[in-house]
């Protein structure tokens, strides 16, 4: 009798464990949502959707070529791209007045394209490569936040790198190839770059150490975003990455990556959200909180169309709160099981 009970207990526990590890799509907003799924297998699909950005203000004239954003110390920090000063600029989110300028004395703005941060440092990506596609001086400037708080003139440590999958032949292929980059995040002990692929409209993910030195950026994967990726932001505690970009008609979009495991950013949920801002060359993005984002665009001029450089606010709560609630529900269930 004891043996039979043991066998029954084993079967029950085994079946419970199988049910607890059910792969599928756990996102309530997905077309193929599976309420029994406990493991996200990356299979979620979504209806097409677009959101409206709330226009905040026109960028200061000094920031017509704004390219990257971070939110730090209740301020928006940005920089210009190629040919601009080797400087960071801070603004409130309520006006376009520049309230602080920080010059990096040992840096050159060859083509600054994005900015990211962790608890102690700000990282500036000088890795724009859409002119000739043959840059061999790609680098990231690492600046201590403590230095920025103390002075308007700072020095940076330098991370030099090349791409693991770029050959000498590709370096010589010329303008508008697949080794441009305008998006970067800091996560854990590494930096992650998202490429801007002019030829195939994909983005490739690369990993680099945060420490100064000379490195080869290791390719980790690729994703067909059907557009040009120009900025990235991560909400670390929510496992959410928001990429910004635009298509060949200069219509902007956001690309949400969430519910991933570790740094396998392309293996969780993937959702493209259009922004109702036509002819807008969206460049930078930062998170004020887990659902509120600021995006910036540089000045765009073509034929009879002109779009001034602007900062806009985007509310993604309707898209993200169901996911955040599901995270809390999982934690609650796990806590109940552990008790």
Strand order of the largest sheet: 9-10-11-13-17-16-15-14
Q: Under the CATH scheme, which architecture would be assigned? A: 5 Propeller
The CATH class assignment is: Mainly Beta
Q: H/E element string?
A: HEEEEEEEEEEEHEEHEEEEEEEEEEEEEH
Q: How far is the first residue's CA from the last residue's CA?
A: 29 Å
Q: What's the overall average pLDDT, rounded?
A: 90
Helix content: 10-25%
Number of domains: 1
Draw up the topology in text.
Blueprint: H1 2-20, E1 23-24, E2 39-40, E3 50-51, E4 54-58, E5 66-72, E6 75-80, E7 87-91, E8 98-104, E9 114-117, E10 121-126, E11 139-144, H2 145-150, E12 153-154, E13 157-163, H3 168-171, E14 180-187, E15 190-196, E16 203-209, E17 213-223, E18 228-235, E19 240-246, E20 252-258, E21 269-275, E22 282-287, E23 292-297, E24 300-302, E25 305-307, E26 310-315, H4 317-338
Parallel strand pairs: 1-2, 3-21, 8-12, 13-17
Antiparallel strand pairs: 4-26, 5-6, 6-7, 7-8, 9-10, 10-11, 11-13, 14-15, 15-16, 16-17, 18-19, 19-20, 20-21, 22-23, 23-26, 24-25
Summarize this structure briefly.
The protein is α+β, with helices and mostly antiparallel strands.
Can you give a write-up of this model?
- There is one protein chain.
- This protein has 339 residues and is an alpha+beta fold.
- It has one domain: Tachylectin-2, Chain A.
- Helices cover 15% and strands 43% of the residues.
- The protein has four helices and 26 strands.
- The protein has helices at 2-20, 145-150, 168-171, 317-338, and strands at 23-24, 39-40, 50-51, 54-58, 66-72, 75-80, 87-91, 98-104, 114-117, 121-126, 139-144, 153-154, 157-163, 180-187, 190-196, 203-209, 213-223, 228-235, 240-246, 252-258, 269-275, 282-287, 292-297, 300-302, 305-307, 310-315.
- The strands form six sheets. The protein has an eight-stranded mixed beta sheet. It has a five-stranded mixed beta sheet with strand order 3-21-20-19-18, with no helix packed on it. The chain has a five-stranded mixed beta sheet with strand order 5-6-7-8-12, with no helix packed on it.
């Amino acid at each position: 009798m004891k043996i039979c009970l043991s066998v029954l207990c084993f079967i029950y526990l085994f079946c419970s464990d199988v049910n607890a590890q059910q792969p599928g799509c756990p996102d309530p907003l997905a077309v193929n949502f599976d309420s029994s799924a406990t493991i996200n297998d990356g299979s979620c699909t979504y209806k097409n959707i677009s959101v409206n950005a709330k226009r905040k203000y026109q960028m200061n004239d000094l920031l017509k070529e704004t390219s990257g954003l971070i939110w730090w110390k209740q301020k928006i920090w940005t920089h210009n791209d190629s040919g601009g000063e080797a400087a960071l600029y801070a603004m409130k989110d309520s006006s376009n007045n520049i309230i602080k300028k920080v010059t990096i004395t040992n840096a050159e703005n060859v083509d600054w394209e994005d900015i990211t941060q962790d608890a102690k440092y700000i990282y500036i990506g000088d890795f724009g490569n859409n002119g000739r596609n043959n840059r061999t001086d790609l680098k990231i400037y690492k600046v201590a936040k403590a230095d920025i708080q103390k002075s308007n003139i700072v020095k940076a440590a330098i991370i030099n790198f090349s791409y693991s999958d770029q050959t000498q032949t590709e370096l010589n292929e010329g303008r508008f190839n697949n080794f441009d980059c305008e998006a970067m995040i800091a996560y854990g002990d590494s930096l992650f770059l998202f490429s801007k692929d002019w030829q195939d409209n994909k983005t490739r993910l690369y990993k680099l150490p945060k420490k100064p030195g000379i490195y080869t950026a290791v390719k980790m994967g690729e994703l067909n975003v059907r557009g040009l990726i120009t900025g990235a932001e991560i909400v670390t505690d929510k496992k959410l990455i928001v990429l910004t970009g635009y298509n060949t008609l200069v219509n902007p979009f956001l690309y949400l990556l969430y519910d991933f495991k570790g740094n396998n950013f392309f293996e969780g949920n993937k959702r493209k959200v259009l922004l109702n801002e036509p002819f807008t060359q969206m460049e930078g993005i930062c998170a004020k909180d887990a659902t509120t984002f600021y995006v910036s665009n540089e000045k765009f001029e073509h034929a009879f169309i002109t779009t001034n450089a602007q900062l806009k606010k985007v509310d993604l709560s309707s898209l993200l709160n169901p996911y955040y609630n599901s995270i809390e529900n999982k934690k609650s269930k796990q806590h109940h099981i552990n008790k």
